[in-house]
Amino acid sequence: MDLNARAIEYGLETEYIDARGALRGVAPETLEAVLQVLPPGPAHRLVDGPLVLVAGAALAPRLRDAAAPPVDFAVYRDQPDGLHEVARARSERWPFSAGQFGTGVYRARLVDARGERDEAALVVAPQRAFGGDFDRVWIAAVQLYSLRSQSNWGIGDFGDLMTVMRWAAQAGAAGVGLNPLHALFDDHPADCSPYSPSSRLFLNPLYIDVSRAPGFAPDLIADLDQRLATLRRAELVDYRAVAELKWFGLRQAFTRFVDHGAPPDHADFEAFRRDGGGTLFRFACFEVLRRRFAAPWWQWPDEWRQPGDERLQGLRDADAGEIAYVEFLQWVSDRQLRRCRELASELGMPVGLYLDVAVGVKSDGFDAWNCPAAIMRDLSVGAPPDLLNTVGQDWGLAVFSAAGLEAALFQPFRDLLAAAMRHAGAIRLDHVLGLSRLYLVPAGHSPDQGAYVRMPLEALLAVIAIESQAHRCVVVGEDLGTVPAGLRERLSDTGIWCYRVMMFERDGEGAFLPPDRYATDALVTFNTHDLSTFSGWRSGHDLRVKRNLGLDPGESDEERDRSLRRFEEAVAREGRMGGFEQAIGFLARTPSRLLALALEDLLEVKDQPNIPGTIDQYPNWRRKLPIGVEDFGMVLNPGRLREVLGGRSIPEGSGPQ
Question: In this predicted model, what pLDDT tens digit does every residue of 267-280 receive, in sequence order?
Fold first, then answer.
């Protein structure tokens, strides 16, 4: 079989349309490098791939032309004690409707008249994802680590988040949006990108408000006040120093909790451990093993690369205290985040928490170890060259494989969504384009030497609809970049909201699109964490910073001046408002149901949180806001924000203030 035929069989695209609309071929050596490590899909004979049934839809799965009818169809549900048959029929075509099953993922087996056999995942889904029970509201977008306060330990925490939520409710916000809260590698605190997690199933304990952790008392740490004062004064988050102090404080809290914790807390902790089941236990085991072997998991001794339950139980018997400590950190993190969700409800905030979900994970992290058949650790996801990143991007992250997801009946993807939605009223899927295809870069290749591999879009959309409705959680898809034709329409049909960034919403002449050109089911914002702040953009500060770093800013000074003139033309209607208020007024008039305002823009910060393409050259994910959360009410006047945002504000006194 020649190279192109092999690529097609594996779902690889041998060419694609780039950001400039030009057809770009993939080099043969790139295709060969990807094929060497890309898992092959199931050898389907009677159907083309995963099957999808949608409630109320007339369309049904189709058989391949090569299938010889009649066909024996059987549908099974996986149960802990084995497969349970739920339907059987013999027919010329697909015989079942969605109404015959509950929503979920099943296993379908088919045998045609010639004896050809096939097996495929069957996803039975509601017609659309949850649409939300709010209309035209706004949220405050927060980089949680950036919050200053008189009580935190040098990094924003869940206690600070509650303070921000109270201010936001007074200002009429329907919720608070956050950077990803995924678990990182806690013994490498300087690797602080929230988009490069070890696991998307668990939380980053560095955000714990230690003072509220069960078992903690200030007298457990010598010179605590002095050490905290130093960390709070720092202009940047000192992750190493913060982690050293927090881990020490939490370890002391855990020791005291074990011996003297209140019975209700102990009961809740044990309930959390039971509810977390095998996944929480495996995560705790992984953390213990990772420290023991100090190497990527594929270099561990054979018996620990993919250990079974019996071997892990032996680890628990030997290291019960360490495993319980990891679970304790997750319990405290979860309960503090849950309290934030409860506070949102008390404050009458219809969105509550809007949480971000990273596109992938680190290949040496827990998720890749836990589901090695579903996550491709030898290929890195990224993006081809575009107008802003002219050399392409390699994000250094491992992602799901189509074959692995189908073999696991999409359970790893369902688990990811459930973890993200657990305490959220809305989530944002970073790089939602990956539901359709993923741009994969082989090891040793530059970012412009990648290839697209197709993903089971319809099945993934159906799974999202299932989990979104189950958790009553809105899903926003970050759909920026090189978008396949028709994808945005397909996402919209499924109820996934689009992501509209004012900086990019221009016509062919560079003019900003008017508010009425924005989509209704959308989150609208001026910028993103990877783009300049409003103040930095208006002053040209971002261009100067990038040039000083030796980066192509993607825009000349003359082009920026034209953009600023276009901006003034677009917001001229906003009358007496000036500065960022003009942008707020403009965006508030869009029909988009959700508007996000970044705290950096409200506080006129010039430096952006992250500059893509940099690691140590720029303090990514480290910058703190210029004021403490206690001063938000004085500096960011809630009444003025309500006035500027008009009808987007939730009613005053929606809940206890």
Answer: 999 999 999 989 99
